[in-house]
Each structure stands twice: as structure tokens, then as C-alpha cells.
Amino acid sequence: MADPAALRHLDSKVKLVWFLPQAALLLLIWLLALAALFVFGASPPMPGLTSPVFAFFLLLFEALFIAAPVYAYHHIEYMSFTYEMGEKEFIVRQGVFTRETTVIPYERIQNVNTRRTLLERFLGLATLEIDTAGSNPNMAEGVLPGVSNKDALIREMMDRVERAKAGHASADGLGARGTLPSERQLLADILKELVQLKHLLQHNPASRGPPDFPKPGGHPPLGRRE
Asked: Buried-most residue among 6, 73, 109, 138 (CB within 10 A)?
């Protein structure tokens, strides 16, 4: 289970990055409705309402029943989006209806790229894209939007990456050196057995050649009993 003290949230201005494009679309729909009513002289779809009254109710409907729920959803999305700088890995948790957890070991991280839209630049935010070894070059392994302190966060992450890779290399070196004593001991045991076998052959001449077996149908060698 994640430590609540180690969890970090995105900058709260990321909600505007998510919401403002959708709010602009609603505003565009309202402006098109105004143009149809006042410029082209279209009649309101509801009888008994004048064009200004219909325009007001349309704007109120969009604000209460579309814009407000959409903003509430983005607020919940913001609250559920957390990330964590663990000891050995970078962890991202997100999702409103379906929770998704992305775990990226530091030793697999190759690069951290920065992407900024015009709106993100205006709000002082950035999106970090984390590339790993073996990942799709057209798709980042991890994406962290709504970051306000991108330079400090990148430095912290790359410091952890360097320490993780240095520790992994040291462990590999120790493991490789650790196999040498056992191999030397094995060679020493084999050599010792060969020396013992040599002494055994030198002190037991009878064991140098194969035993003298009688030929089929013949007589046993002289000096031996049947």
C-alpha cells in the first residue's frame, strides 16, 4: 500500500487544461445559436419564447447541465491522479471509474521529455513523457500532465535513475566476482583428484593394464588355477 505522505498530486491548474477546451466548445455552440437567432432571423424552437429569452435559457442549460458536471468530473480526475517517487520505481495512479497503476523501475528509464501546449504555457504547466528501454518510440511509457516544477522534478527523477543504474552495475560486478572463488575451488579439486589418481597408478603397477582374460575355448593362462 502506498504511503500517503509520499503521494504527490498534479498542479490544480491542470483542471483548467482539461476543462477549458470543452468549455470553449460549449461557448461556440451558444454563439452559433445566437447567430442563427439574431443574424439569420431563425425562430426559437420553443414557442412563446423570444430570441433573447431562448438564448439566456440555452446558456443557463449549458452551464448547469453540461459545463458543471464536466468540471466536477475533471476535479475528481485530478484528485484521483497521484504519483510517487519510490525507492526503486516511479509509480503513477490514475482513473475515476477504472483505476490504473503504472510502475516504472528507475533503471529502465532512458529519457524524460517535456511537451507544452499553448494553454499549458499560458498557465505555466508542462507534460512530462517518460521513455523506457524497449518501449514504443511513438508512445511514452509514462505521462505526467499538469507539472509546474518540471525542471526540479526532472532533476530529482534523473538523480534516482543514475543511482539505480549505478547500484545495478555494482551488484552485477559483485556477482561476477563472487563466482570466481567457487570456480577456482572446483578446478583445485579436479587437479587434486588427478594427482591422487596418478600416484595410485604409479604405486599399483598391476592396475596399469587390462586384466588377462582367457580366450574363448582356450586354456587359462599358466600360473592360474581353473
From this structure: 109
**Nearest Cα to Cα of residue 31 among 10, 53, 55, 9:** 55
Element (H, E) at 92: strand 89-94
Cα–Cα distance, 155 to 143 (Å, whole number): 16
- Candidates 102, 109, 113; CA nearest to 150 is 113
Topology, domain 82-177: PH-domain like (2.30.29)
As a whole number of angstroms, the distance between CA 157 and CA 111 comes to: 10
pTM of the predicted model, to two decimals?
0.69
pLDDT over 90 percentage in the chain:
52
pLDDT at residue 175, as a whole number: 53
Cα-flanking dihedrals φ and ψ of residue 164, to 5°?
-65, -45
Q: What is the pLDDT of residues 20-76, one digit of tens each?
A: 999 999 999 999 988 888 877 777 777 777 888 888 998 999 999 999 999 999 999
Calpha distance 99→93 (Å, rounded): 7
Query: Rounded to 10 degrees, what is the CA torsion of 85, 86, 88, 93?
Result: -80
Provide the Cα torsion 180, 183, 189, 191; round to 10°.
-100
CB 141 within 8 A of CB 130: yes
Distance from C-alpha of 135 to C-alpha of 142, rounded to nearest angstrom = 10
Which of the four pLDDT bands, split at 50, 70 and 90, describes residue 226?
very low
